[in-house]
UniProtKB/TrEMBL annotation, chains A, B, C, D:
Pfam families: TMEM175. It is found in: Membrane. It comes from Companilactobacillus baiquanensis. Keywords: Ion channel, Ion transport, Membrane, Potassium, Potassium channel, Potassium transport, Transmembrane, Transmembrane helix, Transport. It catalyses: K(+)(in) = K(+)(out). Its main location: membrane. Belongs to the TMEM175 family. It comes from the Bacteria. The chain crosses the membrane at residues 6-23, 35-58, 74-94, 106-127, 147-171. It is a multi-pass membrane protein. This is TMEM175 family protein.
Length: 199, 199, 199, 199
């Protein structure tokens, strides 16, 4: 497939998903500054959503810059991954009304879980396709991405699920903190060569 | 015309059409997880719409990567095709309220029919323009696309219309299944060389 | 300036303007097919808006593919032109509620008039900048575009204004027809070489 | 990083932020032309927002065309800058309801202040990264941009803050004028070589 067109299409979809979140930010009817305060929970979940999608884009961009192969299968997993990403604005909007309510927090956790699954599978498929095409080095550097190593580390995933369930039961509002923490420390760490300028 | 700019413009329009469908996903007022259940019909029609537009983009991308010619006529048929595509979010939203209601299902069928017509004509025009410019091989591979062969196979189209009318009369909800089935088996099959990386 | 980035930015803005018009298409609460009929006026104004913006993009694309120069001044006139274009969805939405009401039709006419002014000035500035940079041939082919020749033909503009005022006074609904007619016959005619594939 | 993909992503996000502002322009229920008059305050704040984001894009485009380096750090500051930009439509919408109300005007001033901070830091980081990579000349021309020189001129910033506070206390409506004035005279002045066509 035409790699740059798939990238451009993905970029457009992610950019729109990122930006439509602001549409949920309702301007107050009142003209008092304090009328904006009830929007603070949404502002928090919006900031977390932006961070999340920003880091996702960064990792995605690194992976696609590296890959020499874009097969039909990769295109479809990529599409599925974008589909799960498109639920983040919905989950963000719902959670933004009440940061401590169990319902929206569980919904967010489900979206997050499906998103992780899709992302891990996408990484796996891209690495494998490059390997099969003889680009072993590229496959290795894609599999070396911290986000992928965590998503496929069953000890880490197991511990995470336990923490997550406890949080959802006892203190749902902690989830936003947990996600922010995780995307920064896991997703934010990309291989050293990500700083280089690829043309 | 400047092919890459027409592609970029089409990509942007399709990406937006794809993504605004999520805006119809209303977050519940209640904070109970069960409050999301009434959205399940919309989730189904949203998934079908995403699949549909994804496959459409994939076929379109293949065809445009191949073509050596983009005439004014092709631009206008392409525009008309995007115009019909822009009704998919509307049809998806309406159907998402009641998967088994005849009204929205007929509306969806009309959109689907007009879309198919526009797509078949676009393929025809691109193949013909390439032929006239001496690129017979390209014309052949574009006409060989499964989606085009089905859309121009009158036996298939005839049988389909009969099935469709029966479904709309007796069990409208089956239409989503029919569309999902069809886009996967007809639209999802692109020529073997679609996996190769065109730069 | 970096021409391709200005083009990409313009394309994105125009694609969004084009596509958000569909958001005004309200899905009926009722599940009867006939519930879609009250949307027919909007469908008409939407079709005209799509045609209008499509033709505008086509002419703009031709002009930008030709130009060798993109100055700061051109960037700003281009921005102003996009600003006037951004009112088309608003005018389209308002007119779509009542095709024969004078208020929305006058508003549409004002938007159309300002848009034409901005477009003519943009063409003028691009032609002039190319001329000053020694690309006389390009300047000539840009000035030769039918849309520009009509917008700067005072007899034509004068006659048009008279017809327009009469229509707005006596039969506002004719305006959509007049615009459709005009964009097709004036805007749709681009120089012969627009069919050639520029890389 | 892949500079052109970061640019394309930024362009898409900015284009969407720019364009969704028109969604706040509510079409009147009435069909009288005068029914559009209550929208005039929004039209003013919309025009200022468009001017603001247009100038921001112009400066950003200049800076990114020049830079030879896009590091992870720059990517994240760029993302933060886009995040602050995404609040402009919200502030614009709120202010558009009542140009003279203190609450929305203070909110706008906060957004403007955070935006300036993010933009100045982005410029600083890009200049520094280029310097460290040995491109001293590029670093100098980026630091020479008028917008950066004003944002880091403490006398100017100090005077501005005083004027701003006085305006917010005594005549909030003046803020739109102050912003328009400032973006035109400070942001609109880019280095002389911005007119040259970079490929």
């Amino acid at each position: 497939m035409n790699k740059s067109r798939v990238e451009a299409f993905t970029d457009a979809v992610i950019a729109i998903i990122l930006t439509i979140m602001i549409l949920e930010f309702k301007t107050p009817d009142s003209a008092k500054l304090s009328a904006i305060f009830p929007q603070i929970p949404y502002m928090i979940s919006y900031a977390v959503g932006w961070l999340f999608i920003g880091i996702a884009w960064y990792n995605h961009h690194y992976m696609f810059t590296k890959t020499k192969v874009v097969t039909r299968k990769i295109f479809w997993i990529n599409n599925t991954w974008m589909f799960t990403t498109s639920f983040i604005p919905v989950a963000t909007a719902w959670i933004g009304r009440n940061l401590n309510a169990q319902g929206p927090e569980i919904f967010y956790a489900i979206v997050y879980f499906l998103w992780s699954l899709a992302y891990a599978y996408l990484t796996h498929a891209i690495a494998k396709a490059n390997e099969e095409a003889g680009h072993t080095e590229i496959a290795t550097s894609i599999r070396d991405m911290k986000i992928y190593r965590f998503l496929t580390n069953w000890k880490f995933v197991g511990a995470e699920i336990i923490v997550w369930v406890l949080i959802l039961i006892f203190m749902p509002r902690l989830q936003m903190l947990l996600i922010a923490f995780q995307v920064i420390f896991v997703g934010g760490n990309v291989n050293q060569d990500s700083d280089k300028l690829f043309s």
